[in-house]
Amino acid sequence: MDGASIVDALLEVPVVPSFTRLGFDVRRRSDHWTSLSDYRMDGRTVLVTGASSGLGLAAAEQFVRCGATVLLLGRDAAKTQRVSDEIAARTGTAGLEVVVADMGDLDAVRAAAELVLDRHDRLDVLVHNAGALTADRRTAPSGMELTVASQVVGPFLLTSLLLPALRESSPGRVITMSSGGMYSAALRVTDLEMGADYRGSEQYARAKRAQVTLNEMWAERESAGDVVFHSMHPGWADTPGVRDSLPTFRKVVGPLLRSAEQGADTLVWLAADDGVPTQSTGRFWLDRRPRSIHRLPSTRRSDTPRRRAELWQWVSAAAGVSGA
Q1: How far apart are CA 297 and CA 302, in angstroms?
Q2: In this structure, which topology does domain 33-319 adopt according to CATH?
């Protein structure tokens, strides 16, 4: 084991340093990361969901600075257009497009995919970043619980519909922004959607667990020469979502939180680097290194082949995707 790997392993033992800006700074120096500003993505097209704030906004702006054509997908047309204009002003480029859809509204997701395919024959990167943690239970237009609809079923549908354009990039890349919250959640299917027992943080964790599992399953089904799939954990970043949904956590951790740009670093690296990210698929990443999707024996025991098959069948049916 080299020196950088030893440092990384030491950071992983106590969770707190690993997920904070301390872990980011130490790994960046010990692994001698290539600066994101050194990557060029000219001629590539990137679609980012949840691009109007936080990690999605930070990633989208960096993609623009790297020369990519960036499609900003947001549910609020006015806000997303304003963000597009602001990024264009800061970067001095007009290489942005706005796509409007609520990821929890499956009809809107289908319309968004149709629009993207009409405009672009090829899609190089699809970033699933949209999502929120809500204190109260909400229902999507489909009747599903909103967290599951917008963070599991909607992204599954969008990926399915955009696969032809992603394959044209050989390989296209699908990157899912997950969360360390999933480490506490078992893999669930029949009770993936919480009902009267709803707790926002638990529902969020269940959805994130489903995300990383589906990421691995997509990678098993799709040739890595056509599309590679990766999910990642941003660490603990100071974003509007954290400020709104986890104010006590933010107050306690405070100065140790990463910036949105630091939280989005691995996402941009996975999309821009033509080395390691294209040589593997189905991995889960933190700070440019692959990680296990399990930290607890209980979650590992829940992750059975039978339950995985049930999850794929359930999501396919919920998304209305036949033959997926």
Answers
A1: 9
A2: Rossmann fold (3.40.50)
